[in-house]
Amino acid sequence: MHLLDGVTPELIVFILASAACIAGALGVVLNSNPVHAALSLVGTLFGIAVLFVAQEANFLAAVQVIVYAGAIVVLFLFVLMLLGVDRAEDLSIEPLGGGQRIAAGIVGLSILALPLLAFASTSGEATGAPAAADAPNAITKTTPDVAQLGESLFTTYLFAFEVTSVLLVIAVVGAVVLARKVRRADYVEDPLVEAAPAAAPESSAAAEPA
Amino acid sequence: MLDLVWLIPALPLAGFLVLVVAGRRMGEPTAGWLATAMCGGAFLATVAVFAGLLGEDHEGRHHVLTLFDWIKVGGFEVEVGLLADPLSITMALFITGIGTLIHLYSIGYMHGDPRFSKFFVYLNLFVFSMLILVLGSNMLVTFLGWEGVGACSYFLISFWFAEDANASAGKKAFVTNRIGDWGFMCAMFLTFATVGSLDYSVVLERAPEIAPVTATAIALLLFFGACGKSAQLPLFVWLPDAMAGPTPVSALIHAATMVTSGVYLMTRVNPILAQSYDWAPSIIAWVGVITALFAATIAVAQTDIKKVLAYSTVSQLGFMFLAVGSGAYVAAIFHMVTHAFFKALMFLGSGSVIHGMHDEQDMRRMGNLRKYMPVTAATFIVGWLAIAGVPPFAGFWSKDEILLFAYDKSPALWFLGLITALLTAFYMSRQVFMVFYGEERWGDGVAAASEPQASDATGGYAKGGEAPLGPTEPHESPWLMTLPLVVLAGLATVGGALNLPFTKGTHFLERWLEPVLEGNERVIDVATGTKVGLAVIAVLTGLAGIALAYRVYYQHRRAPIEPEILAEGWRYDSTIAAFMGGPGREAFEAAATFDRTVIDGAVNGVASAVRGGGGGLRKVQTGFVRSYALGVAVGVVALLAYFLSRVTF
Amino acid sequence: MIAVAQVTPAWYLALGSVLFAIGAVGLLVRRNPLVMFMCVELMLNAVTLTFVTFSRMLNDINGQTVVVFVLVVAAAEVVVGLGIIVALLRKHPSATADDITVLRG
Description:
The complex is a heterotrimer of chains A (210), B (649) and C (105).
Chain A: H1 9-30, H2 34-54, H3 58-83, H4 99-121, H5 145-156, H6 158-179, H7 195-207
Helix pairs in contact in A: 1-2, 2-3, 5-6
Chain B: H1 7-26, H2 30-55, E1 63-73, E2 76-84, H3 86-109, H4 116-135, H5 139-157, H6 164-195, H7 200-205, H8 212-229, H9 238-241, H10 247-256, H11 261-268, H12 270-275, H13 279-299, H14 305-325, H15 329-356, H16 374-388, H17 394-409, H18 411-436, H19 445-450, H20 479-494, H21 508-512, H22 514-517, H23 528-554, H24 564-567, H25 572-617, H26 625-646
Antiparallel strand pairs in B: 1-2
Helix pairs in contact in B: 1-2, 1-4, 2-3, 2-4, 3-4, 3-10, 3-15, 3-20, 4-5, 5-6, 6-8, 8-11, 10-15, 13-14, 13-18, 14-15, 14-17, 14-18, 15-16, 15-17, 15-20, 16-18, 16-20, 17-18, 17-23, 18-23
Chain C: H1 9-29, H2 33-58, H3 62-91
Helix pairs in contact in C: 1-2, 2-3
């Protein structure tokens, strides 16, 4: 019992969920097969959803699973299957020259380190002001977060909300326009002429080890 | 009455415009008569304005008619205005008067020329420019006229441009004038910088406030400009070459009007000259007298009838500058007027001779012409006596005034002037004896016709490039040409009455020009005995020169002394040509190379550097999405680091 | 395996940073356009996590509202982005991000 004294459920949940997140993230980055990468992404998304619940943002957790894992990743998989680009790529080939990976590594470490340093300097305290107790945007224990979220969305951020609906319409229209088959009259010079012969031997070589 | 002053330049301008448009259609001689009428009308307008000025009192003889505002840039305001005062109207009188006579003469002289009407186009334009020059109410309008007459002299000198020599002479005149114009422009800049205006009313009134240094600079720069226009040392080289133009041109431009604009300018700015250091007028006087002597020596050895008169003009202009430098502005203007009379007379007379001799210009092939051309001879002889300084002809009175003032300034100046007067009498008599007396030397016409046309310093420029015809007899010129000669001869005879030295009352010109000179005229205090003595010496010198020429060229008792170096003008011209062609050219080439390599190189170098830099920077645009993403990520890291640095630990 | 301490919000923020860093590295290193896109989604998720954490820390509902909007925008972005990728890869199924060099100067 003294071994597990300071262990709270929250801690366990956190450790498990963060493990899932990180594993999924590494899976996305390191998997050579794009389908495997997509599935790893799902793992990350689930982990994030669990962490939302741990932070008492239940509605967001649900939305995260439904929209992200349920729709967006599915969309990814559709495109992967549709275009037949699900063949594994060879991660060891680095046509841009060796500097890119090193630079990426340095950048990644910096992005990791700097915010952490920032937390450390403020001793983990947020610099922003907490919401006033009786302000409309204060999270109260009595009202469910859905209701509060809804109230915030439909009063304070109403305009932004309506704009996002327009955004979605535009996105749909844009996708339809971008992905349609081009008629002869609208045909434009193909800029990627050299892509086909250049990529073919690569991917055929990559197909072997996969 | 005084407001009619705008009519004076307007009439020749109108003539110019009409002739430009319709001249060819009007043809000969209507175009000529129109031009003459316009010039004559201008003369009448000038007389009217003159009458108006006479009616005004001393103070009122300064009338400015502003036509319109020309330039208004910040503090620099120039308007086009005409100034009617004694000096400008005096100049305008003889410009338009003699101009009309020369227009009339040209109708006869240019008879048969295919570009007859063009000639009058240029003549009218010239008269207009000259009137703008003298009537201008500020320095810029004067400069406008100054440039205008320069351009017209170029047009007129190279009127028969089919001959290379004529075209070159025109260019030479223009370029040499332009060098002088630089001096004028610098003077204008200085004047504006010190006084703040170019208007004569303002500048001359405020002249006493100008610092002597600046005044000296302005005066000498203006004098440099005058050297160009009035053919003084070192810029006189264009005038002898300018004899390539038709003789009426030589008469109008190079005897009576354009070359006198330098003298006019110096007289106009006499307050500035008075404000400058004492050695400034001395420089002017010395340059004048040395030029006079220099040119007179060259004239002694010339064989072309017009060249003698050209060098004579340079010499007489030197006298006028001697007068200006000695403070004798009245004498300078007086001599300008009388010189205009007798020099124009002699040029027209020589034109008549050339015309009568069928375009022969070499004096060695003339002789005894008074038998064939009596009117020309008689009038020419009047001019000769006038220039030699024989009383009572006009030249004596004016030249004597100058020598008197020169004596008062410095006996050395007087002595050199006297020598020049001696030479003047000598070479003019030489000319008269060679041309109008002696034996007829054109008999060997066949040999003369087969000789190649000479175009060096001694040769002549034949009219229209035709070979002279020897065997035909010379004839008198038509009345169109002899009438002006007679009129000018009359003026040369009585012209002295303008400023007789006897009493204060006879000094018409001096009293007339007083408002312009305002006491800057030198006052000399010489005893009457000295004056009479100097006059007598001058007359005797003139007679001595005539006598010497008589012995050499009429009686042939002595051999003529015409050293080649004098005939070549002391080789001044060829020295300049050699210098410009040799070291001068090298200097210009060096300057051009410098411009090409250093300056253009710097400019192009900047462009190449930019291009190179751009080419280098272009490599950032790799086109790879990943590189761009890396750039964004690096930016994010930089921002994070920045925000972190603002947080205190 | 002794548990260390309470789970403070700092832990969540640290996790968010880690996920963001992994996503950034993945974006810079991978060549397959779709995998690169997935890395972008990773980064977005890290951001949403951070927002929710702050919302809880500051007791402010605005953090969660922002997450809703981020979600919406992510969805729209995925739709359009995949449309572009479809258009691109339809002709050249094996094209990678390195082959799209039209902007090369």
